[in-house]
Specification:
Strand 15, helix 6 and strand 16 form a beta-alpha-beta unit. Helices cover 21% and strands 28% of the residues.
């Protein structure tokens, strides 16, 4: 497969768990990126995730001198509230009709956390509904959003595509367990969830492929492998996002970082749910080619 290239890509970190040092940017649980894509003399802006709250996203956009009204489309990586919570507020600020919102069809499922990994001493249930309240499907539609549910890889622009669903058969063995105590509710039953709605973005530049992830519940190694397979681009210039290794054991972290290095990835930018142990390992292996994400961080390709 031959994939077009974009002329220039700028990745703005609109919101992240961390703000860095001595900054006016705001942090918010979750992640949100604005991707400015220049190609063929034109510019398109894609919003990837909306973090857990719209205020930090919009505040940080103002500091970065970015206008919500320039956003052409939204991609939601998966259903969890720390990636969808800011949706209604951001869609309202964008203020346009027929705004495409690209999602996996299962994003509207309700997930239950049985034993929250952040509170292992407690045994309780809570709903993890990102698309509820003002973010519910019909309200977003009323605000001008147009839902585009797609399971397979979906081309957004020449040189830009989603990965589509990462199926279990395509995952490396140690990523088939999502390391999450999550369950879906179907027909009043709780069924173990495998985060099938987790999707990422692939952007091909003249210097190689850029992979943008949200939480990488599908497995960051499996995501990169699928990105290479569906684009036909073997040179991976950068992987950017959360890798969800925060509660993975040392064995899985070691295998993951080694696989990323063996793939020949040139640069890693991670944060959010990656976890300090994984970040230390990434720093050890990638050295200066690893950078920690933070709100306001701008990356140019």
């Amino acid at each position: 497969m031959s994939m077009d290239t974009v002329d220039r890509l700028t990745v703005y970190t609109l919101s992240e768990d961390y703000t860095g040092y001595d900054t006016l940017f705001w942090a918010s649980f979750g992640i949100s990126f604005l991707l400015r894509i220049e190609s063929g003399g034109g510019v398109k802006n894609i919003l990837f995730d909306t973090a857990s709250d719209p205020e930090p996203v919009l505040h940080n956009m103002e500091l970065l001198r970015l206008s919500p009204g320039t956003i052409d489309a939204v991609v939601l990586s998966h259903r969890h509230f720390d990636h969808t919570g800011g949706l209604a507020g951001v869609v309202r600020a964008i203020g346009r009709e027929d705004l495409p919102i690209i999602v996996h069809p299962r994003i509207f499922d309700i997930t239950v956390n049985k034993v929250p990994y952040m509170e292992p001493h407690r045994s309780r249930l809570y709903l993890n509904e990102g698309l509820s309240g003002e973010n519910r499907k019909e309200n977003i539609t009323a605000l001008g959003g147009r839902w585009v549910p797609v399971q397979d890889p979906f081309p957004l622009l020449p040189g830009v595509t989603t990965t589509g669903e990462i199926e279990d058969k395509d995952k490396v063995p140690y990523e088939r367990d999502p390391h999450l105590p999550l369950f879906d509710i179907r027909d009043t039953e709780m069924i173990e969830a495998s985060a099938v709605d987790d999707v990422s973005l692939c952007i091909n530049t003249s210097g190689g492929l850029i992979v943008i992830t949200g939480c990488s519940h599908a497995g960051i190694v499996s995501i990169v492998k699928k990105a290479v397979r569906i684009t036909g681009v073997e040179r991976v210039r950068a992987v950017i996002g959360g890798f969800h290794l925060i509660n993975a054991d040392e064995g899985v972290i070691g295998k993951t970082v080694k696989a990323l290095a063996d793939t020949g990835i040139e640069r890693i930018y991670s944060g959010h749910c990656t976890g300090i142990n994984a970040e230390l390992k990434l720093r050890e292996v990638f050295g200066e080619r690893f950078e920690r994400l933070h709100s306001g961080k701008t990356i140019e390709f």
